[in-house]
Amino acid sequence: MNAASTLTARLLAERPRPRGIAGRRYAHWLAVGTVCLGAFLGQLTASVTALVYPALQRRFDAGFAAVEWVALAYLLVLVALLAPIGRLSDLVGRKTMYLGGFAVFGLASLGAGFAGGLGTLVACRAVQAVGGAMMQANSVALVARGVPGHAMRRALGVQAAAQGLGLALGPSLGGLLVAHASWRWVFWINVPVALVGIVAGWFLLPRTRAASAPALPRPRAAVGAEAIVGAEAIVGPAVGPAVGAAAGPAVGPEPDGGRFDLAGLLLLGGSTTALLLALSAASGLPLPAWAVAALLAAAVLCALALVRQERRATRPILAPGLVNTPGVRPGLAVALIGYLLLFCPLILGPVLLAEAGLPTARSGLVITVLPAAFAVAATVGGGLLPRGWSDVARCRCGAALTGAGLLGCALLPALGVPAVLLAGPLLVVGGGLGLLLPANNALVMRAIPAECSAVGGGMVNMARSLGTALGTALPVLGVHLAGPAVGGRSVLLALAVVAGLAVALARPVRRR
Length: 512
Fold this sequence. Notes:
This protein is an all-alpha fold. The chain is 73% helix and 0% strand. It has helices at residues 3-12, 19-22, 27-48, 53-60, 64-67, 69-92, 94-113, 118-136, 139-146, 152-180, 185-188, 190-204, 220-229, 262-282, 289-312, 320-323, 328-355, 360-380, 391-411, 423-447, 453-482, 484-505.
């Protein structure tokens, strides 16, 4: 073994926890707390950038369609890397990858704050997503590795609460930083959290790969849960027993061998990126007409090639046979719709409130109502509903409340009421989504055969990420086409109709 290989092995070698920590009864809760730092940071990043768009437009003299790529670049890279990083982590160790994720995320955040141009900022956000994927691909597996089985549900609930806290604090913290400091602090604020995560993880996380030994296998019960919980999303208490308790026709076990579906991943990323670039061009991004036509053609061709590739792949990232399992297709559609409905108001709200003359700091406080209500409802809201209600009934109730709240968001400004009262319908939207999404997660994971839980969980993950990306792009399109007032109201009314579609899609699974 040469010197370079020796150095690499030493750098990747995981250190065990100090005996004084590992031997304590509450050691597993210290590990959960460390994972919660990463969960908090991921959700904070997802929601804090919404308040920084106007400041970036002024600083870089750029349009809304260009600035939105600060968020879209992060999302696209995150989705592309979650699966391959998860597989790589099995080889080098999940603790090593998780700590590396904190380091990459912190350094990229530091660079983003110093960015002198919009292109540099977007590039730093893409690197930041690499760190985010390194953390998110391993978070649930680390909990599963370090927590006794009887405490698993509670530990995942604590992690969901940390995600909710990050999601809820994002808009208010972003508004305060932009108003009283600088947009750069929206990114610099991540650096101390990342440093604390590195130190805490070094001492508090259990070793997942012994020195000079093969990687420890992932607990089978955690495979499906990881794809659901660790993906920029509040899960709520629904995930747990649902994983692995699937029914329905089998679509074949997940093969343990076979090559990773890199071609499918590249085609998925190419199709999604081309589509979002075309939407950005329609929203004002300065691209020639021939480039837009080429992007749309590329999106269609990549999508067709993806379908063909997934039918032939040994380990597909999107299993066509699994989509035909009763309950899976509508569940994936509702997952996409849910995150579309969540992120559209987060992006659109600051624009509408600024148009109404509300200061940035107060706008952030108003917008915070939505993710805060979402987090609370996802965690404890199910207990407020009648015990006899099925998950289908909970989905329909949540989607109906979301639609009513979006309708209120669209109509209130036209009535001339104070802008701050928009917090009321935003509260209803967040509460409705907090009921809808955990119940839908449970329905989907019950419909997916247990032997396909990882592939199925990854498909839910991608559906939600696509919904988040569309939720970022569509408000920009509406504002560009019709202006903040008319365009914003039109988008909100369209979202209310989409929420009605979610009500129709939520239905009991009919077994074949």
